[in-house]
Write a structure and sequence with these properties.
With 235 residues, this protein is of the alpha/beta class. The protein folds into two domains: 2-113 and 196-210, 3-Layer(aba) Sandwich (Rossmann fold), CATH 3.40.50; 129-191. It has helices at residues 13-17, 31-37, 58-66, 77-85, 95-102, 129-141, 147-159, 167-173, 179-191, 196-210, and strands spanning 2-5, 21-24, 42-45, 70-74, 91-93. The chain has a five-stranded parallel beta sheet, sandwiched between helices. The longest helix has 15 residues, at 196-210. The radius of gyration is 19 Å and the shape is elongated. It comes from Rhizobium laguerreae. Pfam families: TfuA. Residues 47-166 form the TfuA-like core domain. InterPro entries: TfuA_core (IPR012924).
Length: 235
């Protein structure tokens, strides 16, 4: 059984996944463990709860890996956990994962955003820093943004709390811009916006769709040891 946990990074995951892949809401603590107990042998972690719910526990991912379950991560919580667990066999996909794995990104908040409830499609309502950086990089590469302004926008976006970070807020709070320039810049940013989280999530979905061979534990160089903490969190 294949399944993915997806939300605002890929709101239309259910319509894209295709036959044979079960799409679940963003994962919280215990969900990966439950998926393994229900027979999942391929798990794609994209989105996960973190503020008002306990996040996915590293140990439940290690438990899945120890049983030969293929666990992949990308885009958001999945990229974070893949960067932390890739030495144990979790597969990370995409730019965001690579940035966390190599240390170019260190703050978990870089992937945080607010979004509509799942009943309304989980549409993102704010812009995560990883999308800001990808957009500014692309615009600078195409000559649409000079490096000094690019850095000012990056610094401004980083200083805005994730629940209030929109492109309009970034432009309005960027010092030294005349009002007509702000309107033109906002329009340019919106028309060139790069949704890196979606790009990485689509990359994970493609791998989950294509994967055929399930991991073997035969050559696994580590063993999951019992600890004083239960595998399933106590309620």
């Amino acid at each position: 059984m294949k399944l993915i946990f997806a939300g605002p990074s890929l709101p239309d995951a259910a319509s894209l996944a295709g036959e044979g892949i079960r799409v679940l809401p963003p994962a919280t603590q215990g969900d990966v463990l439950a998926a393994v107990e229900q027979g999942a042998n391929v798990i794609g972690l994209i989105d996960g709860g973190f503020e008002y719910a306990a996040p996915v526990w590293h140990k439940e991912i290690l438990h899945a890996l120890s049983l030969g379950v293929a666990v992949l991560g990308a885009a958001s919580m999945g990229a974070l956990r893949a960067a932390e667990c890739h030495p144990f066999g979790m597969i990370g996909i995409g730019r965001i994962f690579e940035d966390y794995r190599t240390g170019r990104l260190v703050d978990d908040a870089a992937v945080a955003l607010t979004h509509a409830p799942s009943a309304l499609g989980s549409k993102p309502l704010t812009v995560p820093l990883v999308n800001v950086s990808a957009t500014l990089d692309a615009m600078e590469d195409r000559g649409l943004l000079e490096s000094r302004l690019r850095q000012q926008l990056d610094d401004t976006a980083s200083a805005i709390f994730f629940k209030k970070r929109t492109w309009r807020a970034v432009v309005e709070q960027c010092a030294g811009l005349a009002e007509p320039d702000r309107q033109r810049l906002l329009a340019t940013l919106l028309s060139n916006a790069v949704d890196q989280k979606r790009i990485d999530a689509l990359g994970l979905l493609k791998v989950v769709q294509d994967v055929r061979d399930i991991r073997s534990t035969a050559d696994q160089p580590w063993k999951l040891h019992n600890t004083s903490f239960p595998t399933r969190p106590a309620l």
